[in-house]
Amino acid sequence: MANHVLSLLRSVQSGDLSPEDALVQLKLSPFEDLGYAKVDGHRAVRQGTAEVIYGQSKTPEQILGILETMHRQGCENILVTRIPQETADILSARFPVRYEPLSRLAVAFPAPVEGRGSIVVCTGGTSDMGVAEEAAITAEALGNHVTRLYDVGVAGLHRLLANLEPLMRARVVIAVAGMEGALASVVGGLVDCPVIAVPTSVGYGASFGGVSALLSMLNSCASGVSVVNIDNGFGAGFLASRINQMEGIQDEHPVSGV
Fold first, then answer.
1. Which domains does the chain have, with CATH numbers?
2. What is the pTM of this model?
């Protein structure tokens, strides 16, 4: 892969290839095949962010191999989701890793990033914090400024109303709630930015492992509310980052007529 990139750069230097055509070829560049995984080394070129490792069901050895490959390709702040403490300890013995037990999320080869914009992550209750932290840490690792508002659910609405200022300043709000999932509708009726609703599996028997909150959020009467899957804090954090940073992306890459 390195030889392929070097060949492209030399073609640009000699004038045989335009920078624009070289960029297209980079976006189509091959992956690195490890046998058990095909590491997409140019995802950051195509999508602006490096590949994320879904750690659940992978062995520590497989994760280590993927991390080593990505680090060799120059990746930093690599997210490894849904791993237990034992796996995190194995990774930490080999590479620099920051692990958050509550969210079961690790950031390998952590590096400072400058947060931009404003994403608010709020939860209905303390029991939703694991999913919320997965969303918040994901967004922070991708270069966003995140404000946390935890335990501000509808059972005590005054707690949410006491925090209107950060909500009103947000470019995106992630609303994380289980039970009946009403928080997303309430927030959606207050703010003028997109709201990403995350149903959690928190709740008693009739919550059906988060299905009740999922259906409530899908049927929200508030406009501008979108919904990700049950307990999918990572998906919410990633989507919020895309929305929050769209203005900067458009400024750097203006759309030209075809």
1. 31-108 (no CATH), 116-247 (3.40.50.1970)
2. 0.82
